[in-house]
Amino acid sequence: HHTADVSVREKLAIPEAEWKAQAAKLNQMPNIDEAGILSTCNRFEVYYVAHDTQAANEQLMNFLKEKSGLSDNELGPNLFFHDGYEATKHLLSVSSGLDSLVVGEGQILSQVKNCAAHGGDAEGSFGKVLGKLFNIAVSTGKRVRSETGISKGAVSVSSAAAQLAELRIQEDIGKKFEDARIAIIGAGEMTRLLVTHLASTKASQPLHIVNRGRERMEKLSEMFPDVEMSLHTLDEMWEQINEADIIFTSTFSKDPLIDAAGLKEKLSSDSKKMLVDISVPVNVGYDAKEVEGIAAYHVDDLKQVIDANKEKRMAAVKEAEILIEGEIREFEGWKQSLRCVPAIKMLRDKGELIRQKELQNAQKILDGLSQKERDTVDRVTKGIINKLLHGPMAHLRAPEDIADHVEYKLETMQKMFQLDALEAHILPTSDQKKKGKKKKEQTAPAQLSSSV
């Protein structure tokens, strides 16, 4: 929502049911080792891990072009790219509600949780890095909301839509908000949030709910026993639009349900309607604004309401940014420490090799011992090696957020313990990497967030 308007985002939008399958497609690309997709009404983001970032970017760009049908020139200006530290910071800001169109809103944290669940299950495309990153993102989002005032007084996209209708209805169609008949097309989560807000206003009732199936509508009605609702199936949609003054739309339809041609055909020429569409892809065609008497709004039009609420939470935003910075340092330190994993294995292997050689040299003496005594010798010698290596291995595992510090530790260990060819083990070339494994172990990963 920062870099691309809804007309571009809707071409890239992926329903949550397809996040896992589309991430799996990315994960099969030669230069992408882990992948996750986060697609909401306000953002489309791809997170991935790769060793060759440039090659991975090219593959991702081809994926986006194929998905959207847009050319390089059309798509390029709408993209932004974050790598490494900036990618980590971006995701933590997203999960904390700082990057949302509505600062502090809570729905995005649930969406990040869902992305983590899809990526982290047995068939998901997360590995060690994205798994860790998204776990931290979820815990950080919870901390920010519990330890700062970021969510106090926050509005959702749905409530912002209702506020926009309150602000604009008199000017747009010459009616008071409390006198307006309201129809809502769709019965999902966004509608639930919308009804929650409308119930706290002077909105007239009943609210006229239109949806393809009745089950969702009936569940919605059960959630709000104090809100009067009139339930209608999709074949009654135009009848309800005709009778309503304000029509909110929020469905999963991939194509517009309402457009200029339909409005001209189904409504009388003197009709005045306010259409507020909070769906991506859009439910109300962009040409609806061209019809006389129709005031049509989309998600990007909500900013005038949202900006008024943003100022109230600026102090909490600064508190959240400090908290996020600490979480980023911890994750970046953990990520850098992954480069020491091969060195730790080599230390263990070398210690075991020395132990075995010394036991072989003492074989004649050991042959004279009972099995119980030989087991004791084996246990004691293993304990000695483990205790000797505990300090060096703990030093290697300690998080470092500066790459040069990791290099120095590795170089020191290589010289001190004479770990031959350590560098070759830690920095594998691209042709040494084994592709095709579902979970791929990384030693020097790079994170990417590409978003429209």
What does this protein look like?
The chain has helices at 6-12, 19-27, 53-68, 72-75, 85-95, 107-120, 128-147, 157-173, 189-198, 214-223, 237-243, 260-266, 303-310, 314-337, 341-361, 363-367, 371-397, 403-417, 422-426; strands spanning 34-39, 44-50, 80-83, 182-185, 207-211, 229-233, 246-249, 273-277, 294-297, 446-451. 52% of the residues lie in helices and 11% in strands. With 452 residues, the protein is of the alpha/beta class. Helix 8 (157-173) crosses helix 9. The protein is elongated, with a radius of gyration of 29 Å. Mean pLDDT is 86; it is low at 422-452. It has a 6-stranded parallel β-sheet, sandwiched between helices. Strands 1-2-10-3 form a 4-stranded antiparallel β-sheet.
Helices, strands, pairings?
Blueprint: H1 6-12, H2 19-27, E1 34-39, E2 44-50, H3 53-68, H4 72-75, E3 80-83, H5 85-95, H6 107-120, H7 128-147, H8 157-173, E4 182-185, H9 189-198, E5 207-211, H10 214-223, E6 229-233, H11 237-243, E7 246-249, H12 260-266, E8 273-277, E9 294-297, H13 303-310, H14 314-337, H15 341-361, H16 363-367, H17 371-397, H18 403-417, H19 422-426, E10 446-451
Parallel strand pairs: 4-5, 4-7, 5-6, 7-8, 8-9
Antiparallel strand pairs: 1-2, 2-10, 3-10
